[in-house]
Design goal:
elongated; mainly alpha
């Protein structure tokens, strides 16, 4: 009983202290969101070629993928920042929440782009091939995220949830900045199998 009372008092004190401190929701104005817009627009301006001829289908597929990915990621990031009690949950729970959010982002944007490409008449084996190729180029970024999350949560410099989430948003921003290159590498390495599809 005494432990519960002490924990409750600590929680109240944290809320009072954090009430005057910065709230995680303020990160809704972090430049990770403008970075997502910038990355999407950068991909929009990419052109892809097959045998030195402009390949409209490959170009449109790349843009649709980037738009889908950036929209899904922005929605999940905003939802995470609005999470109930995010300012007060334990570091362990916050870390689990962030990892889950990242996994959910990935699952959703892959599911949505797969459905879109299939609806456009692209054969299933080709859809899976493009997704696998993208994930191969993107793997170093995902691995870096895993290492950075461990470092962020292991650091004594990040002493509250605002600091932790700020570091996470900075990490995501760097990953977003690398997205156009990963998209470019993926679609430049495709052959012309899609060019005759009415996309």
């Amino acid at each position: 009983m005494k432990v519960i009372i002490v924990e409750y008092i600590v929680l109240i004190i944290k809320k009072l202290i954090n009430g005057r401190a910065r709230k995680v929701i303020l990160l809704k104005d972090h430049d990770v969101f403008t970075s997502l817009d910038r990355a999407r627009n950068e991909v929009l301006n990419m052109d892809f070629y097959t045998s030195k001829k402009f390949d409209l289908v490959k170009t449109q597929m790349c843009y649709d993928f980037a738009q889908n990915k950036t929209d899904v990621c922005a929605d999940h990031m905003k939802s995470l920042l609005k999470s109930k009690d995010i300012d007060y949950i334990s570091k362990a729970k916050l870390k689990r929440t962030i990892i889950k959010a990242q996994n959910d982002m990935h699952t959703q944007y892959i599911k949505e782009i797969r459905a879109k490409w299939l609806s456009k008449g692209i054969p299933s084996k080709d859809v899976e091939y493009v997704i696998r190729m993208f994930e191969r180029f993107r793997r170093p970024v995902v691995t870096a995220f895993e290492h950075r999350i461990d470092s962020i949560f292991g650091s004594t410099f990040n002493n509250d949830n605002f600091s932790l989430m700020l570091a996470i948003c900075e990490m995501w921003s760097l990953g977003v900045d690398l997205l156009p290159d990963d998209m470019k590498d993926t679609f430049e390495n495709l052959n012309g199998k899609f060019k005759d599809i009415e996309y």
